[in-house]
Write a structure and sequence with these properties.
Number of helices: 12
Order of helices and strands: EEEHEEHEEHEEEHHHHHEHHEEHEEEH
Strand content: 5-15%
Number of strands: 16
Length: 459
């Protein structure tokens, strides 16, 4: 007997001891799909691809970022700074040679960030156009609980007033979508009906959450038991894995202290204590929490559009946890102060490679998460970029651009394309068209383009 199709918006529901409502969104299950796995069974709507902007500040070493050869498959090899992504080469589309034509001398980081995400110059401190994630959201976000979600790994300050230094997601001029740097707040938003995160000042909400002795998952067990009776073996296993991944996040939030250290022995193990990075060092433990939460947000289709800010443009971040010689401001002292050229700044190289290891953790998590008939990385386009090319002198050529994922079959993967001197905005128009936009141009002034990058989208 065939089970009746399950609605994509189905959730598990429960109540915490505080009386707060809890909803556990579900991943995309077989019971929700048609026989071919290409559309939702109830609505016949095609399964939407997913989009992520993954942004890191302070650029790369172009001589160690750009692969030596172009082509596909065995015709090209990963560069040294992309080696952390070696296991995912078949999912990567590297695009080199592009120039950010909107970079303004003296304001390289804010104009570089704006150019790489909006294709438009600044007007004072404001961007002049919506960012690419919001362009994509116009196409694919209808029906999702959240139009977009923005998270960040480290709030290490960029030290400037421009909107494009503080986020890469803009609904339009003076309309920022600021990233959330606190994993507790993201967890609450996803699974507790948007409840605010507890504040460190002992606010009433924090006190209530500290007294909760019942986990989010425990509160929905009865609803989950009813659902399991409707599911086939594969879906039952997928739901069990999904709930266990949420349980793992709960454990991490309960046992990880702000700044990445171990909690005091006397800390309350039932209260989430992990907060945003308090030491401006983008610690691995916070990255792991944000990776898990971001993956769940996409897998459960709480959103189809996400921005993950590894670090802000021009961020004064300290990678002191990497090595003794890294206890310096990565922006001022290391990128600008260290001697060397575009292929030889060892401490810059160490920071970029760490950044790519953190990206690899996210992409690997997407690849290992089932989604419909494939996995999340198959279904996603992850746009990886920065606010400058070579940080030491703020170069605007050889801008770092990487597409990860296959966008639901719209990207082939395992390719390196080189477009010497071409406009960076063409990458934005290419993304928009891959994600289903009918736009034939994007950008403003020197960032305006009317054609995408040739040969990148799978026809």
């Amino acid at each position: 007997m065939t089970n009746k199709a399950l609605n994509r918006r189905a959730v598990l529901r429960g109540l915490l001891a505080t009386g707060a409502a809890v909803t556990i969104p579900l991943p995309l299950l077989e019971i929700m799909l048609n026989e071919s796995g290409t559309a939702l069974a109830q609505t016949k709507t095609p399964v939407s691809p997913l989009y992520v902007t993954w942004f890191f500040g302070n650029g790369t070493l172009p001589g160690r970022w750009k692969p030596a050869r172009t082509g596909s498959g065995q015709a090209w090899d990963l560069s040294p700074q992309l080696q952390p992504l070696a296991e995912l080469k078949s999912y990567l589309t590297v695009i080199s040679g592009l120039e950010n034509k909107l970079v303004v001398s003296g304001f390289e980081h804010p104009t570089g960030s704006a150019g790489a995400t909006t294709g438009a110059p600044l007007s004072g401190n404001a961007v002049r156009a919506p960012s690419i994630d919001q362009v994509v959201a116009n196409v694919i976000s209808e029906g999702a609980p959240y139009r977009s979600i923005e998270v960040g790994l480290t709030p290490a300050t960029p030290g400037g007033p421009q909107d494009s230094l503080h986020t890469v997601s803009h609904r339009g001029p003076s309309s920022r979508n600021n990233p959330e740097f606190d994993p507790r707040a993201v967890f609450n938003r996803l699974f507790m009906g948007g409840a605010p995160a507890p504040e460190d000042d002992g606010a009433e909400q924090a006190a209530k959450l500290a007294n909760v002795r019942k986990s989010v998952l425990d509160s929905v067990l009865q609803d989950g038991a009813r659902l399991q009776q409707r599911l086939g073996a594969t879906d039952r296993q997928r739901v069990e894995q999904h709930l266990e991944s949420i349980r793992a996040i709960e454990r991490r939030l309960e046992t990880t202290a702000p700044g990445g250290g171990s909690p005091p022995a006397c800390s309350n193990p039932t209260a989430p204590t992990v907060g945003k990075d308090a030491q401006s060092e983008a610690p691995p433990v916070v990255n792991a929490a944000m990776v898990d939460l971001s993956t769940l947000a996409l897998a459960c289709e709480r959103t189809r559009v996400l921005s993950f800010m590894f670090s802000l443009p021009a961020a004064h971040v300290y990678y002191r946890h990497l090595a003794q010689d890294m206890n310096d401001d990565f922006h001022d002292t290391i990128c600008h102060g260290d001697p060397g050229n575009q292929s030889d700044q060892p401490r810059v190289d160490k920071g970029v490679i760490y950044t790519m290891r953190c990206l690899n953790e996210f992409l690997t998590k997407l690849k290992n998460t089932p989604h419909g008939s494939s996995n999340l990385l198959d279904s996603s386009l992850v746009y990886v970029t920065s606010d400058t090319a070579w940080g030491k002198t703020h170069t605007r050529t050889e801008w770092p651009v990487l597409f990860a994922g296959k966008a639901g079959g719209r990207l082939r993967g395992d390719e390196h394309h080189n477009f010497p001197g071409d406009n960076l905005s063409k990458a934005l128009l290419t993304i928009a068209q891959i994600m289903g936009s009918t736009a034939t141009e994007i950008g403003v002034d020197a960032g305006r383009v009317t054609s995408p990058l040739a040969g990148v989208q799978k026809v």
